Amino acid sequence: MRSLVLALVLATVAGCDRSETKKDPQPVTKPDDGQGSGSDAQRYKDEQAQFDRARRPDQIVTALGIGPGKRVADIGAGSGLLTVHLARAVLPDGKVVATDIDKAPLDLLSARIHNAGLDSVVEPRVVKENDPGLERGQYDAILLSQVDHYFDDPVAWLQAAAPALKPGGRLVITNRLYHRAAALDAAARAGLSRRSESTDVPGQFIAVFTVEKAK
After folding, report:
1. Tens digits of per-residue pLDDT, 166-184?
2. Three-class SS of residue 3?
């Protein structure tokens, strides 16, 4: 009888351990490259799907006004959850320069881009913290997605980035609504003109700017 009770107790403890493990799964450190387990591939798909539902990248692509052959800078691109959408939008002969101040997230981005078959479209680029690192007059659009509030001097950064735009190019800032006032103020002080704004994504704003012509 004692043996039976002990066996039931051990079984119960083991079941609790498995339950706790399910509540706290290991985080995905990189997208599946086709060689991982099926569960890794599913987590990657779930991560992208969750991002897409929350951030509505289709609206960001529309605000950027990009299409085939366009050149875009994705500032603070991180692991590339948004970059893949930009890359698909500029296929087959466009270019996305994905920047970050750290190499580690760009390594994750590279894996994601490779998994999506977009290596030829995206150029990961490590840049200095306060330097956009973009070529002058080469970009149809520059995107700052939930990154502008990290700049030490947002006005100076925007002023440095603006010359990278082609004539008529767009600079788009999207962030959480509580960063909106600071973002709009910095853009105005940097000499950018607000052309449109959307708050259709809950808790977010998407603002489109162009460079004011010199008088």
Report:
1. 999 999 999 999 999 999 9
2. helix
CA 158 to chain centre: 18
CATH of the domain at 139: 3.40.50.150
Is 103 among the domain residues? Answer: yes
1 in a domain, yes or no? Answer: no
What is the DSSP pairing of strand 165-176 with strand 204-211? antiparallel
In a domain, 26, yes or no: no
Instruction: Determine contact, residues 42/9, Cβ cutoff 8 Å.
Output: no
Residue 83's nearest CA partner among 103, 50, 111, 102 is 111
Using one digit for the tens of pLDDT, what is the confidence trace for 2-46?
443 334 333 443 343 333 333 333 334 455 444 445 565 676 678
Number of domains in the chain: 1
Answer whether 94's CB lies under 8 Å from 71's CB.
Answer: yes
Distance, CA of 108 to CA of 4 (rounded, Å): 50
Q: Which range of residues forms the domain containing residue 180?
A: 38-211
Sheet holding 204-211, edge to edge: 122-126, 95-100, 71-75, 139-145, 165-176, 204-211, 192-198
